[in-house]
Amino acid sequence: EDELDELNEHLLSAAGLGNRWRSFSVAHERARTSVRKAILRSIADIDRIDSSLAAHLRDSVRTGTTCSYRPG
User: Fold this and answer.
1) What percentage of the chain has pLDDT greater than the value 90?
2) pTM (two decimals)
3) Which of 21, 30, 58, 66 is the most buried (most CB within 10 A)?
């Protein structure tokens, strides 16, 4: 019974708001997502100043597992 109580405590501590399971994303996935968002924000900022350059970057910058610049 003590083991069951301990197990229940561990399971409850793993639950987030509303007793939903917390998602534990791996660090490289969080970093990849942050970089992608930063690139998109930067291109949006550039678009306010130079729309043709922003269009070129949207067509040439690739994000994913790695990021690359490949002009067409």
Assistant:
1) 46
2) 0.62
3) 58
